[in-house]
Amino acid sequence: MNFLIIATTALLLTALQARLPTAWWIGGFRFEFLPALVAYGALTFRRRRWAVVLAVAAGFLQDALSAGPFGNTGAAYALAALLLVTLGRAFDRDSLWMQMLAGAIASAGASLAAIAVIGGQNAALKLLLLAAVSAVIAPFLFFVLDFARWRSRPA
Amino acid sequence: MLALAWALLLGQPTALGAGLRVFFLRLATPFQRIADLIPVVHSHNQLAADNKKLRADNNTLRAQLAELQHQRAENQQLRALLQIKQAAPWRTVGARVIGRDASNWWKSIQIDRGTDDGVRPDQPVLSASGLIGKTIHVTAGESRVLLLLDPTCKVGALLETTREPGIVSGANAALTREPRLQMSFLDRKSNVKVGDAVYTSGLGGVFPRGILIGTVTEADLDPQGLYQNVELKPAADFRRLEEVMVILP
Question: pTM here?
Answer without folding.
Answer: 0.80
